[in-house]
From TrEMBL:
Keyword Oxidoreductase: yes
PANTHER family: GLYOXALASE/BLEOMYCIN RESISTANCE PROTEIN/DIOXYGENASE, GLYOXALASE_BLEOMYCIN RESISTANCE PROTEIN_DIOXYGENASE
Location of the VOC domain: 3-127
Protein name: Extradiol dioxygenase
Organism in which the protein naturally occurs: Streptomyces kanasensis
GO molecular function terms noted in the UniProt entry: dioxygenase activity
Entries under InterPro entries matching the protein: Glyas_Bleomycin-R_OHBP_Dase (IPR029068), Glyas_Fos-R_dOase_dom (IPR004360), VOC_core (IPR037523)
Length: 130
């Protein structure tokens, strides 16, 4: 059965992106392989994630650099699901993650929008049934 394996996030620099996703968001570095042409195959994922991960791809053209931090036109583009909103919100806040709004309760769960290192918008969400 097919599944979504990787989603690309265009980044300015591999090492600063790895540090942010690992240290601030708590992701695991799954792979960091040089490709021989100066690029690297860098994969990060939330701990325990079995299917979808992020491929951190360094911008190499002016068009790509212009999209770093605004890959979805200002909309929330990624949804980080948790089983304990309060724990993860507190950990991320302590690690310097910028939340753009206070947590709110919605019929579908508890949610707050945050931005990554580059300004891409994410939801931290605990589904109502979790």
């Amino acid at each position: 059965m097919p599944h979504l394996g990787l989603v690309t996030v265009v980044v300015r620099d591999y090492d600063e992106a790895i540090a942010h996703y690992r240290d601030a968001l708590g992701f695991e570095l799954r792979e960091d392989t040089p490709r021989g042409d100066g690029s690297r195959w860098v994969v990060v994922a939330p701990p325990g994630s079995r299917e979808t991960a992020l491929l951190l791809a360094r911008a190499t053209t002016e068009d790509q650099r212009a999209r770093v931090g605004d890959q979805t036109g200002g909309r929330v583009g990624w949804f980080l699901t948790t089983d304990d909103f309060d724990r993860d919100h507190a950990r991320m806040t302590a690690a310097g993650v910028t939340f753009l709004e206070p947590p709110r309760r919605e019929p579908y769960g508890t949610v707050a929008v945050f931005s990554d290192l580059y300004g891409n918008r994410w939801d931290l969400i605990q589904p109502a049934d979790a």
